[in-house]
What we know:
Blueprint: H1 4-90, H2 94-101, H3 107-157, H4 161-179, H5 184-205, E1 213-214, H6 216-231, H7 240-243, H8 248-260, H9 267-285, H10 288-316, E2 323-324, H11 325-334, H12 336-339, H13 347-353, H14 356-367
Antiparallel strand pairs: 1-2
Helix pairs in contact: 1-3, 1-5, 2-3, 3-4, 3-5, 3-9, 3-10, 3-11, 3-14, 4-8, 4-9, 5-6, 6-10, 8-9
Pfam family, one: Peroxin-3
Protein name: Peroxisome biogenesis protein 3-2
GO molecular function: protein-macromolecule adaptor activity
Amino acid sequence: MLSPRGLWNRHRRKVIIALGALGSGYVIYKLYDVHRTRVAELERQIEGAREVDELIKSQLQNHFQSIQRISDTATLPYAMHYLRSRIAEDLDLSDLTDKLRQPKGAPREKAELWERLKVLSFTRLTTSLWSMTMLYLYVRVLVNILGRHLYVDIARGSESSQIHHEVESFGRRCQKDFLATADFLSTYGINTLTMNMQSTANEVLKFKQLKDPFTMEKLHETIMQILQLFMNIDSPNYWISYLVPENAKMDTQMIALSSSGFEDPSVLMDASKLDQLMSETWAVLSSPEFRNIVELSLNKLVDVLVEEIDTQFKHSSSSSGAIPLVTLLPRVAQQALPLLEEPSINRFIQIIKNLPEVEVFYTILYSDMPPIL
Length: 373
């Protein structure tokens, strides 16, 4: 019989190999268990990040839809209604037409009245066309800039309840004030706008006589000349001052102070945020890309307006070709009011909205997100 020592000596190699295999298997199992735990943790983190991302997207959509509703149901309709009232009042032609209907009057006085009617008819049309187009495009800029900031703030706020509270506070306090800048055009800017548009129309029309024959091509060219000259008064971007006050920083600070109170500790934050929003708005409005969609929109609408005037004359008269300018004036003046109809039924706004270049511009504007730090 072999002694234990002899048995060990005889089977030592096998025992060592077996123990080594068992040890290696245990180590491999532990490594696998650690790896499996890490993978499970990583999957939980990925799932958590996905849930956070979905939450951010949901919050963003809700906020953006809320902003869009405010814009569609309050901001744009109110501004458009007031704009329509101001233009109808400031460029009322009824006194002129009443005087021209009177049988009495010196020939020179009548001629002056007709000249005024000529200039004011085109002024009324181009002022309505330009202000409606710019108001709609401007409000969309506000909505997209505000939506972009809300996206970033919501993403940051998901990591901190304190920041999230500030985001909600920003949404309540600043959103309305920022969108309210759309009222500047119809409240203040319209005065200088109308004066400069009338001056521009007078410059373009001064050598065009009432008896001059006008084709639709010449009418289109005349309207575009007025608009293009108007857009370049003083400086290429002077027209922005009709939409936004030049001292926007001071005005936004006063908005924050008046809406929140001088003793509110968040007043400076609101003023700073509004100032940032307005600075970005100025940058967008002064960009070549925005000017491009403005020009495209105006040109498209002039196409539509001239085509409609042409159709009206074809239906009401068998004559074709050139029409005396004096005969065109009532049609030109009448086209102003449909341009300023309620946004929900305004077909001219719909035409602008459907322009592919406009959609691309606002898609890029909204997606041009700053990094989320």
